[in-house]
UniProtKB/TrEMBL annotation:
<dbReference type="InterPro" id="IPR032466">
    <property type="entry name" value="Metal_Hydrolase"/>
</dbReference>
<keyword id="KW-0378">Hydrolase</keyword>
<dbReference type="GO" id="GO:0016814">
    <property type="term" value="F:hydrolase activity, acting on carbon-nitrogen (but not peptide) bonds, in cyclic amidines"/>
</dbReference>
<dbReference type="GO" id="GO:0019239">
    <property type="term" value="F:deaminase activity"/>
</dbReference>
<dbReference type="GO" id="GO:0046872">
    <property type="term" value="F:metal ion binding"/>
</dbReference>
<feature type="domain" description="Amidohydrolase-related">
    <location>
        <begin position="60"/>
        <end position="429"/>
    </location>
</feature>
<dbReference type="Pfam" id="PF01979">
    <property type="entry name" value="Amidohydro_1"/>
</dbReference>
<dbReference type="InterPro" id="IPR006680">
    <property type="entry name" value="Amidohydro-rel"/>
</dbReference>
<keyword id="KW-0862">Zinc</keyword>
<keyword id="KW-0479">Metal-binding</keyword>
<dbReference type="InterPro" id="IPR050287">
    <property type="entry name" value="MTA/SAH_deaminase"/>
</dbReference>
<protein>
    <submittedName>
        <fullName>Cytosine/adenosine deaminase</fullName>
    </submittedName>
</protein>
<dbReference type="InterPro" id="IPR011059">
    <property type="entry name" value="Metal-dep_hydrolase_composite"/>
</dbReference>
Length: 457
């Protein structure tokens, strides 16, 4: 598909900018040129030829959502009956043998599958935490992710994950999916040098992501963050997800998880953790002080009975925090709009009626993700920013009777979370609710076939 260089969205019912002042523009136009927003306001007229005009009269226009944590490959192992009643550690032990069958096709099609779901639910930028490298597979397994992300058209922060402690070393995964520290560090350098784009408006960047404090050696945690800083890339890992993890780290190191990570050099504005459920107020203050970020994953935390992160307190203290769907096997979808609703409801239930608003949740999924990933060009609709956005038709059965606030409408109501248009880097990648750059039927067929092979072994 040829990339559109100039798109004019005319007379939008309401543009939710999520800029610093959270301004909203009614009956306004937005002009996209060469991947950027160049003009916003009423009655935009231009003399140059327009590649596409979208009549926005019935539409709400939002900034593209940003997903901070996922495991794409798990989209092939979701909804498994025998994994539905397990908490994290037992859940992992059941699934690791199945994940040991991951191959290049599994990585490629799971990326198309998960990224496709994300795009269709308004997500324009995603990270992914890929850490399963079976010994029987090619060394460059992760490259299939970057290729698939480029093909489908999503802005991608791929993390080169790792596991070096197998069951025989006191870890959880089988020996068949772990690597040596030397193998991990060598490939981490290769992936950064091949795929990391440091330029503004980059479509692909790389971070380094040891799986967790209980799946790699202390030496690898230290060397990974040092390598990331040598290259100027970010670092990511799971932390404080469950009480079991907290007890494991305390028993192993004598320290609480955050203190252990700080000992290893894992705090700072170049670090973000998945979950952060079991962090106390003093630890949250330290996170804010150091600029260390969090990906909040409410659906996964509820499904695995992990707990409710103190997100309202994180926001008040100034901890950089955004939203993530987590791996599909613990969600079991890649739906960012549903994730927003789950976050809203979780914190109203656990932390009280005044703890969070629908607009606060949208800010997590836009501004929060932007700040955690340090990509200031995304996360809001402003002149000069990236043309990453989605449109939803207000004339839907699920919105009827509830059009007074488009943010509340998208977070609280609706008979579907599938959006009408998604635009990434100035290109329409979802139109009329369907992906434009890939064949959805082929992805569905291939994903189901690969999933059956992995599960049945």
């Amino acid at each position: 598909m040829v990339e559109l260089s100039r798109i004019l969205i005319k007379n939008v019912k309401e543009i939710i900018t999520m800029n610093k002042n959270r301004e909203r523009l009614k009956n306004a136009d937005l002009l996209i040129e060469n991947g950027k927003i160049t003009r916003m306001g009423r009655g935009i007229e231009i003399e140059e030829e327009i590649d596409r005009i979208i009549n926005g009269r019935d539409y709400f226009l939002f900034p593209g959502l940003i997903n901070l944590h996922h495991h794409f490959y798990q989209a092939l192992t979701r909804n498994l009956p025998d994994a539905q009643e397990s908490e994290l550690f037992d859940w992992l032990k059941y699934l690791y043998p199945i994940w040991s069958r991951v191959n290049p096709d599994a990585v490629y099609y799971s990326t198309l599958l998960a990224a496709g779901e994300l795009l269709k639910t308004g997500c324009t930028t995603t990270s992914d935490h890929f850490y399963v490298f079976p010994k029987s597979q090619p060394d460059n397994l992760i490259d299939n992710q970057f290729e698939a992300a480029k093909e489908i058209g999503i802005r991608f922060h791929g993390t080169r994950g790792s596991m070096s402690l197998s069951e025989k070393d006191g870890g959880l995964p089988p020996d068949s999916v772990v690597q040596t520290d030397a193998e991990i560090l060598k490939d981490s350098r290769r992936v950064i040098e091949k795929y990391h784009d440091r330029s503004p408006f980059a479509m692909q960047r790389v971070a380094l992501a040891p799986c967790s404090p209980f799946s790699v050696t202390e030496e690898l945690m230290i060397e990974s963050v040092e390598l990331a800083r040598d290259y100027g890339v970010k670092a990511h890992t799971h932390l404080a997800e469950t009480r079991d993890e907290e007890e494991f780290v305390l028993e192993k190191t004598g320290l609480r998880p955050l203190a252990y990570m700080e000992k290893l050099g894992w705090v700072g504005s170049d670090i973000w953790y998945a979950h952060g459920v079991h962090l106390n107020s003093d630890e949250l203050a330290r996170m804010a002080e150091t600029g260390t970020g969090v990906s909040h994953c409410p659906v996964s935390n509820m499904k695995l009975s992990s707990g409710a992160a103190k997100v309202p307190e994180m926001i008040k203290k100034g901890v950089p925090v955004g939203l993530g769907v987590d791996g599909s096997a613990s969600n079991d979808s890649s739906n960012m709009i549903l994730e927003m609703k789950a976050a809203f409801l979780m914190h109203r239930l656990v932390h009280g009626m005044k703890s969070i608003t629908a607009e606060d949740v949208l800010a997590l999924a836009t501004n929060g993700g932007r700040d955690v990933l340090s990509q200031p060009e995304i996360g809001s609709l402003e002149v000069g920013k990236a043309a990453d956005m989605f449109l939803v038709n207000s004339k839907r059965l699920g919105f009827a009777g509830g059009l007074y606030d488009p943010v509340s409408a998208i977070v609280n109501t609706g008979d579907t979370q599938i959006v009408d248009y998604t635009i990434v880097n100035g290109e329409i990648v979802v139109e009329d609710g369907e992906l434009t750059r890939v064949n959805e039927e082929e992805i569905i067929t291939k994903a189901n076939s690969i999933s059956a092979e992995m599960v049945n072994g």
